[in-house]
Amino acid sequence: VVESWSFLDTVESNFRPLVVIELAKGTKEETIEWFTKRIVDKKANGGAQLLIKPLVMENGAENIYLVGASHLRLLLGAETVGLVKECSDNSMRTFTYSSRKTFKDFADDNHNFLTMAECQYIIKHELENLRAKTEKMIPGYPQAKLYPGKSIVRRLLTSGILVQIFPLHDREELKKLRHSWYGRVKVGYQPLDDIRCYFGETIALYFGFLEYFTFALIPMAVIGIPYYVFAWEDYDKYVMFATFNLLWSTVILEVWKRICAILTYCWGTLLMKRQFEEPRPGFHGVLGVNPVTGREEPVYSSLKRQLRIYLVSLPFVCLCLYFSLYVMMIYFDLEQWALDYHKENESNFSSLMLYVPSIIYAVVIEIMNRIYRYAAEFLTSWENHRLESSYQNHLILKVLVFNFLNCFASLFYIAFVLFDMKLLRQSLATLLITSQILNQFAESLLPYWLQKRYNRRMKKRMCSQKTDTDMSIAEQVNMEKEMGTYLGTFDDYLELFLQFGYVSLFSCVYPLAAVFAVLNNITEIYSDALKMCRVYKRPFAEPTANIGVWQLAFETMSVISVVTNCILIGMSPQVDALFPDSKMDLVLTVALVEHLILAIKFIMAFVIPDKPRDIQMKLAKLEFESLEALKQQVRAFQMQLHFLLIHH
Amino acid sequence: VVESWSFLDTVESNFRPLVVIELAKGTKEETIEWFTKRIVDKKANGGAQLLIKPLVMENGAENIYLVGASHLRLLLGAETVGLVKECSDNSMRTFTYSSRKTFKDFADDNHNFLTMAECQYIIKHELENLRAKTEKMIPGYPQAKLYPGKSIVRRLLTSGILVQIFPLHDREELKKLRHSWYGRVKVGYQPLDDIRCYFGETIALYFGFLEYFTFALIPMAVIGIPYYVFAWEDYDKYVMFATFNLLWSTVILEVWKRICAILTYCWGTLLMKRQFEEPRPGFHGVLGVNPVTGREEPVYSSLKRQLRIYLVSLPFVCLCLYFSLYVMMIYFDLEQWALDYHKENESNFSSLMLYVPSIIYAVVIEIMNRIYRYAAEFLTSWENHRLESSYQNHLILKVLVFNFLNCFASLFYIAFVLFDMKLLRQSLATLLITSQILNQFAESLLPYWLQKRYNRRMKKRMCSQKTDTDMSIAEQVNMEKEMGTYLGTFDDYLELFLQFGYVSLFSCVYPLAAVFAVLNNITEIYSDALKMCRVYKRPFAEPTANIGVWQLAFETMSVISVVTNCILIGMSPQVDALFPDSKMDLVLTVALVEHLILAIKFIMAFVIPDKPRDIQMKLAKLEFESLEALKQQVRAFQMQLHFLLIHH
């Protein structure tokens, strides 16, 4: 059954193309031969034992290859990557080939036991783990050095020989998913399990969080509406609203952890063991011995990296922050000018003009955020972090600090330096709404429109009148390889994070923010879904057990918002009027309330368990079983040993 | 080699008694026979395969048994409990019998490879894991029910047949340890590794923490002395001292985590896998099926437990808190009375009388703390927690809340209601010093004196003039079994926790507190050492990787102390004088500084890594190795499988 295929073996009927490899034009023949040989070679010979077949295009060869694998190979790969699947008794277990019969829906002829996303993830993992043996360089490219244990695919990528690797869409499945996701007008949940099967856990978890967050904002929005409709300005109502908001935000973040645990338990990623982290592709250094693995590989001195971080990156970030504040001051000059103009002219036009500075500023903020994003990526990559996780942490920290200041500095300034609540409300509304519109446009609608135009041109060029579903593989690959690459959930979470800031930081001044956030998120679900299904190449699935550092970011934001809201309430004239004699009593009361709310928040976060009881029980059961199994092994071994010792 | 001994086998020359079992007087013969049979029985028959020998006393049999084990049995037991030992290449690895040759100092004839404390821990573990097979009850005691899988020793303990199990002292080793620990006057560190070898990791870690904490307090004490000597009262000096204190307390708690990681890495407990937790001995319920293990065992409804906690324990704790506050008010009445008396009489005696209420109150606080401790233990045990960890958490929470309020409520009242800094200083000093003296006396000196008197009487009764070291085993057992039982490190940590509160909560008012704390801790090390070596039975070693919930408790205290110190500084007349016009600016400035310090604290706690870099590297190396080993296994298995599939 497990015969290795040659890459010329293109006539095999049940070859299912899963992943596309695009090599650079003019790649040398010997390189292609060596690379494909390594891919199809037996595991025992250090190959990946996958199937590969060149794509024959009408307009001549373009160095595009389709990669697949036999059913058995995929099952063995599932064991290697440590997939967790559901058993017949409804418990989740790490899949092993020897225990395959105990898994739900497993049958030797059921090729749907692994989802397509899982198959593609396995193939990606196997390709990335294709390592150099004795090769000193990539054949045909003496400048592309290799050393034993170096990932071949990563070296090919960094030296530009390999243009891209991406998984193929399944047009049938995608059509079904599109229909159930956003194809029909309906009230209901997203098909998260289908999304997970098609796009993997990281993306499904983002959509799960987006949906959850939208639902969680609804109570805030509902309570916020009457404040706007009846123009309530009583201090007690505001205090109630703000207190509710502050405690509510803690509750929703804690409850999310529980929901996340339920989702990822069912998806198997909660139980999945972490793989050992390899150096990221861009990492470079001089050849040395890695103290952890004992392997010879590039090492880069930690001191040099620290110097780059503290002597270059940190000053640069500070400079950017200063620049952002400088732009903010220009905005306030503009604001002043618009106000003066309105006072002089007092026309409809001039009152419209009042909003113009805020709108311009919102656009400038968005542009600055995007430019800074590139700079931060460049700098962090220049810092030469060895691990992807360390790179991500430094990037996220840089981006979060700047975006936080860039978006909220003007609001803080208006609130706590100018003490102008009317301007704060107006500015908050303009910034929030403008940034939402810009984001929706820049993220989804614009790429969608460009993609559509490009597709139309492509089709015209190919002179084919076929519908999407009966395109040939060649046409499909040709179309998909030109699509943009989805760069991960970072930007999507960042957008939600800033939105959470707009909603919670000044919630007691502008209760309507939650309403806008809810409306935005509902359209966001649809536009993000559109973006995933129509605009970008299919991304590789990434198993993940939680939303990672974003949980911490949202929690920090909710702590900061306690402070801002307490100060805002303390500054309101209604509360002021309650303490006519002593401003000091006012401040003391506000400080006391703030500390109380913070204490309640921390106690609540501590008391609410991170995992629901039944998930805890299931995890305990699994742990018990694995310990029992270990004990059995030790006992069996000991008995064997005793037997040997006694009888010999 | 591995021949099971009968319990009558008392003449074997190299039997080393490790653990003592004392059965109740008049225990039925059939019970003794059954129990000893189970202890010596082969593992394969469900026994513990240990050695046991009755202790023959001069004054007739007293149902005391000595338990030991062969060297091989202990090595196999070390594998079962998952001991981590140092290898020849200086890395730490989980001990397995098959890889025994790779471990440092291992030799088949080296019986000191396992420390005596480790041997005793293994024997305790094996005894506790002696489980009922088909027995429905303890033979001879029909009311002592058993069910398959129930720990026999726990049932024997709860039904009173087994009086106690304790490990024997090693008088030679103990003498050496005493000498190097507190036997000679010297300046230097404690012999932590020796303490760990003799008493186990939990106790060694406590002494490590005590020593570390004492050293960490020295900078505070040194800076505090000139404030007292020169009677500095400038606000800037106080602000500096308080700020230093607040940041310093964060640093020392973070650095402790690193030192703790270094210690426990060297001791092997950092890497030790957690064992599956069995129900605690006192747990009872109706027979049902445990959803986690699937075994039939007593279960107790979680709802009932919640009801007991919220309807009985919580109101009781609140009542105790109320009572504590009531006693506090009486103390203030006394204080007022003493003040009036002093004003009337103005004598030396009357000025001494001023301290009397504080001293009485300090004594009352200590008494209340101790009574409450018993009540809390009773209540928590009545709540019927299934796991020891859950029991401990509920007990610690109850005790911490009450002790915190009981000790500090009066100080908070004086500081923030009476605004009397002079009284605060006086009260703080009296409470701190009195409680330290009381604790040293009640914990160590009194028991030591009682023990000594008892020992003298015992020796007289036995009419023997021998010194400690050449006592017979029988005499030694007879003496040790009457010694008190050390109840764990809870009280010791609690004392340090309260001391930390006295030092940090009001540090800017009474900088001398740190000096007293340092002096107390130096004597505390000696008196605690005395207590461990002389007063109590040797405790069983408990492997542990950190100080657990106390880390959180200390961190919480350091956050609370930021708030109190900022308020105290804000209230001082010197700072007051800086803001002559507006009290509001003063309060705002104080609040701002407080938030800044809190933010710095959290950032510092986040930035300082919990484990030093080299420990991180070593852990990563181990993880890498185990993943590699797993991969090798999977690969070998896959190749085998491929081979089979191809050739058959």
Automatic annotation (TrEMBL), chains A, B:
TM region(s), chain numbering: 212-232, 309-332, 352-372, 395-416, 496-519, 586-608
InterPro entries reported for this sequence: Anoctamin, Anoctamin_TM
Keywords per UniProt: Membrane, Transmembrane, Transmembrane helix
GO cellular component: plasma membrane
Subcellular location(s) per record: Membrane
Family annotation (Pfam families): Anoctamin (PF04547)
Anoctamin transmembrane domain residues: 195-621
The keyword Membrane belongs to this UniProt entry's keyword annotation: yes
Principal subcellular localization: membrane
GO molecular function, one term: chloride channel activity
Membrane topology: Multi-pass membrane protein
Family the entry assigns: Belongs to the anoctamin family.
Protein's name in the database: Anoctamin
